[in-house]
Amino acid sequence: MTTQTQNPNALLPESQRGPAERLLDLVLGGSAHLWHNRPGLDVNGTWYAAAHATPFQRDKGRPVKPGLFVPAAVKLYRQLLDIYRLNAELMAHFASYALTQTDWRDLKVATCALMLVQEHAGQPVRDEQGGVAFHDDDWRAIGEAMVLHYERKSTRMLTPKAVLRVAELLEHPEIARLNREAGFGDPASRKAPLGRWKRVASKWLAAREANMPMLQGLVKAGYKETLKKLARKAGYKPRAQGFFEVLGWKQKQSAQGHREVGLNGLTLVKRERFDGLSEAEICEWIDLERLSYKEVVGRLPKDVGLTPAIMAALLPSLSDRDLRLMTPTLEELGLLTDPAIRARWEKAVHTATDQRALNIAKNVRSAVLRRKLEEASDNAARQAVAEATAETDVRVMFLIDKSGSMEGAIESSKEALSRILAGFPMDKLHIAAFDTLGTVLRPKAANRIAVQHMLAGLRASGGTAHASALYALHRDGVRVPEDAKLVVIVVGDEAGEAGDQFARAFRDLRIPVSAMALLVSVAHARGSTVRSCAAQLRVPFSEVNVDQFEDPYQVTRVLKALMDAPTLPGTAQSGWVERVMRTPLLKVA
């Protein structure tokens, strides 16, 4: 599964692509997750869940334990390093963007790790007389600010687990090797370069110790052992023994006798099991202590288990995302028949920011609930498009290749389109399929089911003429307002007429194009029609493999990047990259 983002002015080789192209390529083609909490298989550098592997994957794959998937981590970190070497300021803005504008947890960890160890650390630059002329940029402060950034009840900050993973990533031998090769650490040292991680992790822990309710909240959320690991790895020295008490962490004197805090009179907070308590008593404890789902589920007696009453008592502690993920459990317990619980669940469906609900829908029995979860997928796509187009009037043309060369690939195209088309306002969306003849398509409604119905009849056959789709839309009365920006997205293998012919059709029909994209779906051979057309029109071009849309988190990321049209006509720069550069740099408070 590979993607490439090309410079529209020329089909540049890899070595000549600039930092902006590489950054867009990373986002459009970087769906791989770095950490997995279940056993997997490594099949040529791609992770697959061992429990759901195909016979081919079991035969060719190498078993990997839960935890960091090294091939994906090395690939992502190397991509970030390449961008950093070409433009350190772009990487600083991208790190700030990744934390505050995305929900991509592994990307936040990787960019934070890089910023904490990279070489721009505010060093003094001396003049010829040896005096300090000025100080270098301190991009390491961006990494510090990423760790310390705090927004109450926000998902756009680093969790305790993420702060710990920054160090775990930097300590891995392969990542340490990349950092040494980049000049970020002593090449002779056996220790992995950690940059400012220990210092900022200690600051992070000190802030939580100074705010004891915040520390207690993290323990309730299930981070107790993570906090202990953080303190050990950072060498953190608590100011008072209350830190150890909240964590239930018994202390003993070190061999060197250095410890001064937490050795005497500790009153450890322990989380006892609920054995011997009735269902009503457990519910009272949950309400009294405001316990979370993670705190309770492992302490329930076997003869009681998770009952409807206990689950109902835990609902206030669950986020909207938790509610969506736990739909099968709520259905099994019969809680979704309660009007108040059902109303809150439907609100959670409406606020979805990823398409994971499509996977959850496979595990529910009710057809009504399944349709509601599919709505969550549509809502996530709509929100992504709305965010990306908030600043300008963007119109979209989807041109779908159904020629004979698409035999074997048309079905994957349909699946990808069913995940994304419902995200677009129908009055700003124009769709046409083409072989040698263009056909205008219209969904009956703005949802996944309607899109699937619209695409069901498409069959691969005939020749390939991309321009025929444009002529069909033009005959149908489609016009783009002068003050709007048009993004043209072609789905197929771009094996058709010459790019200049396709570009001539846009000019002849006076269709102003602001950006072009290709959703690559190849069954046989790959052409270059769309890339060449973008080069002729001198507009930004990007591409993404349709397989990327199998990742429920990647769909919204790709939509945001594809829909950011350029701010100036005739520019070859992606508007999404411009948005990244406009992101204010994070600062340590």
Task: Offer a concise description of the structure.
The chain has helices at residues 19-29, 55-60, 70-86, 88-101, 105-117, 140-148, 160-171, 173-181, 197-210, 212-220, 224-234, 242-247, 279-289, 293-297, 308-314, 320-325, 327-332, 339-350, 357-360, 367-388, 410-420, 448-455, 466-475, 499-508, 529-537, 554-563, 575-582, and strands at residues 35-36, 40-43, 46-49, 62-64, 67-68, 124-126, 132-135, 394-401, 429-434, 438-441, 485-492, 515-520, 541-545. With 589 residues, it is α/β, with parallel strands linked by helices.
Topology (elements, then pairings):
Elements: H1 19-29, E1 35-36, E2 40-43, E3 46-49, H2 55-60, E4 62-64, E5 67-68, H3 70-86, H4 88-101, H5 105-117, E6 124-126, E7 132-135, H6 140-148, H7 160-171, H8 173-181, H9 197-210, H10 212-220, H11 224-234, H12 242-247, H13 279-289, H14 293-297, H15 308-314, H16 320-325, H17 327-332, H18 339-350, H19 357-360, H20 367-388, E8 394-401, H21 410-420, E9 429-434, E10 438-441, H22 448-455, H23 466-475, E11 485-492, H24 499-508, E12 515-520, H25 529-537, E13 541-545, H26 554-563, H27 575-582
Parallel strand pairs: 8-9, 8-11, 11-12, 12-13
Antiparallel strand pairs: 1-5, 2-3, 2-4, 6-7, 9-10
